[in-house]
Amino acid sequence: MAEYARRVHAKGPVICLNMFCYVLLIFCTVLSVSGEEPGNFLAQKDAPDAANQGDRINPKFGLRQNMGSGNQPLYEQTNPGRRQIPPDVGIKTDARNNVLLASHPDCMEDVVMLCNATVMRMNNFAILDCLQQDGAVQARVSEKCQHLVWEYKQNLTKDDRFESGVNEVCKKVFEENPECHALPAGVGQRIPCLIEVMDNVTDPGCHRFLTKMANIVFGDYQLVWHFMENCKDDINSFKCGRLDNDSDKMHSQGKTILCLARQIGMLKNPECRKQVLRVAELQSDDYHMDRSLYYACRDAREMFCGQVHSGNGKVFECLFKNKMHPEMPSKCKDLLQVRQKLIAEDVKVEKSFYDACHADIIKNKCIAGMDTAGGHAQRSTILLCLENGLKQGFKPAGECMTQMSLLRKSLMEDYQITPEIVSNCGLEIDKFCRTQAGLDEQGGTIHCLMQMANPRERDRKNQKDHPHAKDPREDFRPECKAALEDLLKEADVAEDASVDGVLMTACSKMINGECKGKIRTELMNCLIENIDADDMTEPCEDKLIEIQYFIVRDFRLDADLYKQCHEDAVNLCKAPNDWWANKGNKATAETDPDVFPCLYRHLPNKLQEHKQAMMDHDDNDDDEEEFKPDELPNPLSRQCEQEVRRVMRHRAKSIDLEPSLEAKCLTDLAVLCSDLEHYGQGKKLKCLQDKYEDIDDKKCKAEVRKFIRDEDEDLDLDTILMKACTPMIKSFCEGILDNNADASNVMNCLIENKNHRDMNSKCKAGIEHHQIIQMKDYTFSHKFREACKKDVLEHCRTSKTKADVVSCLSEIVRNNILLEQTHNISQDCREVLKIDLLQMSENINLDPALKQACGDDLKQFCKGNHNDDGQATECLRENKKSLSAECHKKVFKRQLDEVNLDADFSLFRTCKQMIKKHCSHKDNQDMLSCLKQHLDELGHDDPCKKMVLKRAMESTKDYRMNPKLAKACRRDIPKFCKEDLQHQKEGEEFEGQIINCLKKQFTKKALSNDCADEIRLVIKESHMDINMDPVLMRQCRIEIRSLCQDALGEHDVDRDQLLFQPQNTDTRVKTCLEEKFKDGKIELKSNCGMEIARWQLEVQIDVHIDPELNQLCTMDLVKWCREYETGQGQTMSCLLQTLEDYPNKLKPECKKVLERRKTLWELAAKVAPVESLSEVHEMIMQSPARHYLLGVHVTILGIIFVLGITCGRVTKRVTKTKEFHVSEECHEKNVLVKREVVL
Fold first, then answer.
1. DSSP secondary structure letter of residue 691
2. Cα separation of 192 and 218, whole Å?
3. Total-model pTM
4. How does strand 63-65 pair with strand 56-58?
5. Which residue ranges does UniProt annotate as crossing the membrane (predicted)?
6. Is 925 exposed, middle or buried (0-12, 13-18, 19+ CB in 10 A)?
7. Could you give the CA distance from residue 38 to residue 752 in angstroms, rounded to a whole number?
8. With contact defined as beta carbons under 8 Å apart, do 267 and 345 qualify?
9. Which of 102, 838, 912, 1139 makes a 20 to 30 Å CA pair with 694?
10. What is the DSSP string of 502-532?
């Protein structure tokens, strides 16, 4: 109080000016203390002083009346000690001779008619309340009575003995506050001092004294000292004066104060503004003091606040809570809005809030340094200051928190109580929100403005209103957007969603469902987490997006993010230290969003990526974020990292929540994604991903590319996928989750189980969408990009899509394998390349080039098998002969890639159990061989068996489909099959020609050992299954159909589909062909006969090649030929020698098959005779009877020699004709000898 006294002495006139209305208030209250009327109080105590000063007491009211001109009083005093009543007026008095308004002839009839209560007529204040209770009653009061009441109030407030009444009534309070009593009397300083401590006044008489007079004082601005001189210009400027000659009407001049209050933010004179706010502060304790509001809200008070006791601003608080209720009278609502506008200018006008938060305001130094001239502090500044303290860990008191929530709620309910919204958003409200009925209810206008702040929403609205306009977008001023941002900071909706009535109403289903039980601070996050849930309603989603549109553009509006990342944001991203910095700054929306991207760049994985990019400085990746070198060692804290990832998950749910992406893609969104049927609410991001190739704007394309990359690194960002696949991940991938698997491992797990019978169809669709998007650019896949980036830049820089990159890299890998070169592609890249090939084989949609080339073929041959479980590509394989040239070429290239990179999806899927049981220890390159070894364990109709045989048959058509053979014969093929290689076009199959060429060389023992070993396996398989010999099948197609129809069964030789397996039906087709060949029904020199002959000669090299012979002669081979080396024809020669020497000692079955084979070999020899002496020598040296044969050969040569000599002598004596005959005879003998040796 000493400090206050000092300030009073220093600024006494100013305080007196501001507080004189309190003096007026106190005076009238004093007069009513203890039932004593104003007239009696003044008459008894102050009449002598009045007489001595030359003034007269007005007998009308018991107050002094100044002398008129000529110093003649208006009413003479007949008795100076007592008031005299004019003889012409029958004015009644009470027992103390107090003049009563009810007895005055000017008001008698009005009181009788309007205030028909005997008790009320004996109390002037009760009569005042009665006559001024509302507009309807006032309208019925006569002009004379109105003038009488006006004079009564005016004289009451201007009496110079006002302060003496205060000294009498508030004596005890002066004693408790000596600082106030010490101030000089008569200069208007004592009362302002008491007002400063009025909240602490406990004396009921003094408190009632101060309170009751307010009902009179605040009814007319002319009763407030110096109000007129301070506010004259503003009254004229805003036309707040009364021009209807009713200035004497009771309470009418109070409308002038109300008019100025409506314009509080635009008043020109600061002193007038102080006067209006000070009046509002004085009224804040009891709503009765605000007479306009009191009369307008009488019914509302009874309806909504009947149980609320007046005082301490409680009635105001109750009325504010119910302001937006449908039954709230419009007049009352209007005046409540006016009062809330005053609260915006001076928080003290809201008494409940200021009293509850006063200590916290002081503790947080919310007023220090603020422009608080006149003691006024703006609501927004105080509220933001308290919220700033809250976010820094200084939690306000419980009652203050409650009042803060109520104040926030009122802000979100009514835009008109926020001056910045009114002044900065007027054009936007008129343009976008006036035509929508009911928007003012529960804050609809604020949500309308938030919606229209989104440029895409404005586009949608304007296109609807102006469909033919070229550029219908209308501007939304930065000032309005900044005002909305400030409002959301004040309301802090992210911290407490319950303050937004519109949101709570729209989301009631979710709040009572998925988010039931969530506390207020958790509610917003819960709603956002479920924004794409099945139970989410469209209105709730819309309102969430409207709020989140602003929250994501200022990291401070996200309470959890700010709490965990504030320190990192300040240190790493140059964010302001105070939560409430930049209030009202129009640039806020352009600068603050930089904070979150900066935090995102400091995620550990992003820093690692940039570090790698710096190491690979030659890569020239223009999509990498730029860092300064000193930023790299500073990753985010663990808590902040978790919050950043949470926010990223939320942002991925809608493009409206991705500020940079939305801003850069507005045009492309309008052009590409206007189809609401396919790309409605929440699907714009999916649209941009689907139509990535069609995006024109480079900046937009770069942002979409960045978002897709982020999605791959964090599957939670792929909301479509995670919404459907979270249960599937728990079901199928729980094992890898326990090992902290990264996103790529989880994705691979989902892909592997995509076609499982328990897989959710929506999850499968999400997986396929994720895969398809990744195929648009190889950089979309984090794992692929990291593994293959260098290889792509070195070998496939011109490739655009990931499918093109995979094709390019696969070809390099294939060539390295076939040519047995050192791999040019890194091991890591080859591993991920294999995974991608498997995925492309599984779904043709993942290979756009193949799908485009084979579109017509798919429709013709593969209806219903377009993209399920590898069926489309498998169908194309089965119909390969019938495909168009371009499609055939693509399918064959795919086959080569799958074989050489061990990425045969259909084989691995179909034989998954067999691989797990028998071949899990094998390398993928040996997988097919391993499976073939265990075919006997499978049934005839087993899908795996059919698939293995199909793949084996495909491998016989082109040596490149058999990597091991291609590698082993890499030198033999150019040496022996050069002509076949030259005649083949690039990208076409050899249809078994190269392998057939190698088979012929095998029979001649011309192949290298490695190549011979591999071709022997191929020959053996072809003898077990005629399908494995494509050349024979092709050359003998007619013969098989015409001669072996009974043995053909289901097999269709016109297709590459295996429907018949001869080894399971006693090789009937093979046997049939051999029998027809032996019987001469197949010509020896025909194409089919030549192939059958070649078939027979292959068996001569290795008995084990012929399954029938090997099976029936096993015991004889062991008995007679075990010392001979297999694979060089010696074993077969041994059996033939045994057949000739000991025919009866062989097993009957073996003897029979040997005799049949011998006949076939003789026929084969006729088809393919010995072509050189070297072949004869080789055959003899390999025979077990080579010594005998050599002896015979030498004898024959001796005979030939003798014959030659003899024939030579004869030629001298014969004619040339005879000589010719002799020579011919000799030649025939030589041929017969050679054939005998061969046999």
1. T
2. 17
3. 0.65
4. antiparallel
5. 12-33, 1188-1208
6. middle
7. 95
8. no
9. 838
10. HHHHHTHHHHTTTTTT--HHHHHHHHHHTTT
Secondary structure (3-state) at 63: strand
Q: Which residue has the tokens 């930049």?
A: 582
* 679 — pLDDT class (breaks 50, 70, 90): low
**Distance (Å, rounded) from C-alpha 1084 to C-alpha 1093?**
8
The token pair that represents 90 in the structure block:
């029958």
Neighbours of 1223 (CB within 10 A): 12
Q: For the segment 195-211, what is each residue's pLDDT rounded down to a tens digit?
A: 556 667 778 887 776 66
Q: How big is the chain, counted in residues?
A: 1239
Q: Which tokens is 1007 given?
A: 């192949």
Burial category of 629 from C-beta neighbours within 10 Å (exposed 0-12, middle 13-18, buried 19 and up): exposed
Give the Cα separation of 559 and 580 in Å (integer): 13
d(C-alpha 124, C-alpha 100), whole Å: 6
User: Which two three-digit tokens encode residue 592?
Assistant: 């603050």
Among candidate residues 371, 320, 379, the one with its CA nearest the CA of residue 347 = 379
- Structure token pair of residue 57: 């007491």
HSE of 314, CA atoms in CB hemisphere, 13 A: 8
Specify whether the CB–CB gap between 799 and 793 falls below 8 A: no
CA distance 1127 to 1102: 5
CA–CA gap between residue 941 and residue 943 (Å, rounded)? 6
- The torsion defined by the Cα of 372, 374, 377 and 378, in degrees rounded to 10, comes to -110
pLDDT at 8 over 50: no
Query: In angstroms, rounded to a whole number, what is the distance separating the alpha carbons of residues 60 and 100?
Result: 9
- Which residue is associated with the tokens 């809330």? 340
- Which tokens sit at 1208? 């030579």
Tokens of 91: 């004015």
pLDDT above 70 (res 88): no
Cα 885–Cα 991–Cα 977 angle in degrees, nearest 5: 120
Distance CA 82, CA 77 (A): 8
pLDDT at 1231 over 60: no
Burial class (CB in 10 A: 0-12, 13-18, 19+), 623: exposed
Answer for the pair 636, 561: CB distance below 8 angstroms, yes or no.
no
pLDDT confidence of residue 1040:
85
Written as six digits, the tokens of 1078 are 């032996």
Q: Which amino acid is at 81?
A: G
**Tokens for 1116?**
């004889």
Contact 224, 20 (CB under 8 A): yes
Give the count of beta carbons closer than 10 Å to the beta carbon of residue 742: 14
Q: End-to-end alpha-carbon separation of the chain, Å?
A: 138
**For position 81, what pLDDT does the model report?**
35
CB atoms within 10 A of CB 560: 18
The torsion angles phi and psi of 98, rounded to 5 degrees, stand at -80, 135
Determine the angle formed by the axes of helices 314-321 and 351-363, rounding to 10 degrees.
100
- For 1145, other C-beta atoms within 10 Å of its C-beta total 12
Question: Which pairs from 305-314 meet CB under 8 Å and 24+ separation?
Answer: 310/286, 311/285, 311/286, 312/285, 312/351, 312/352, 312/355, 313/284, 313/285, 313/286, 313/287, 313/350, 313/351, 313/352, 313/355, 314/352
**Are 897 and 810 a contacting pair, CB within 8 Å?**
yes
- Buried b / exposed e over 1198-1215, threshold 16 CB at 10 Å, is eeeeeeeeebeeeeeeee
| Pair 62, 201: CB distance under 8 Å | no
